[in-house]
Design goal:
It is built from 12 helices and 2 strands. The chain has about 250 residues and is mostly helical. This is Nurim.
Length: about 250
């Protein structure tokens, strides 16, 4: 947590006066404008290339490389966002935990929650076909003449993918908002991505039940493998192949 709230400068100035000065500061407005542009650039790339008409055009031009190109442009947009993001250091923070002992304990709590959230996000790799998500499996299957790997998945898996490719909404919201200090630029970032997540997914109870069942199945598979029960491991693999979930 490197965001540092600037000092008030004068005890006579109220919070309203500080905000009034900050919002009239050309440097603050310039930073916010650049940050908003980077966020819009990312969301336009992420949504426009996933829009069905554009997706069909890209598919007809790029073929099996379409998914890989989508992931590449997403990574490029994220790199631009991180490289050119402008922190706002000359404006008050929306909140900051500065009173003892919470100035020590609350950042530690936030760090722990963030660590757990990122661990859950990474555990999604146990459920989703990561090679297919990145577009690598499409190329591999094309070379072997096996067709589209997504068509080999179960109907429930295809339904989930149609609703949201990476369902990590709750964890990401915690990472965005559960902070000891919230600066103006971080607030803009959190608000924009929260709105984007709210508008960009259509997950329902059936999708959540499917995810829960798949996580439980994968954890059983890994625990069985660690225990050395190769027979059960083989049966689980056969069941997975029969259900075509992988």
């Amino acid at each position: 947590y490197d965001d540092v709230c600037p000092a008030s400068g004068s005890a006579a100035l109220s919070d309203a006066a500080l905000w009034s000065v900050a919002l009239q500061d050309a440097a603050v407005l310039k930073c916010l404008a650049v940050d908003l542009f980077l966020l819009v650039l990312f969301s336009v790339q992420h949504s426009l290339l996933a829009w069905t008409p554009v997706k069909h055009v890209c598919q007809s031009v790029l073929g099996v490389l379409n998914r890989a190109m989508y992931c590449f442009t997403t990574a490029l947009a994220l790199q631009l966002l991180m490289r050119y993001w402008q922190p706002v250091t000359s404006a008050p923070c929306l909140w900051s935990v500065c009173n003892a002992p919470w100035d020590i304990w609350f950042p530690l709590i936030c760090f722990t929650v963030h660590f757990l959230c990122w661990a859950v996000i990474c555990s999604i790799l146990l459920i989703f076909d990561y090679a297919e998500l990145l577009g690598l499996k499409q190329v591999y299957y094309e070379c072997l003449g096996l067709g589209d790997p997504l068509s080999l998945k179960s109907t429930r898996a295809q339904r989930l993918y149609a609703h949201l490719r990476h369902p990590v909404c709750v964890e990401l919201l915690l990472v965005l908002w559960f902070l000891p200090t919230l600066s103006v630029d971080r607030c803009v970032f959190a608000m924009y991505l929260t709105l984007y997540l709210a508008l960009g997914h259509s997950l329902d109870a059936e999708d959540c039940m499917y995810l829960s069942a798949q996580l439980h199945s994968k954890m059983q598979l890994f625990s069985t493998s660690a225990g050395g029960d190769t027979h059960t491991h083989s049966n689980n693999n056969n069941n997975e192949n029969e259900r075509k979930l992988d």
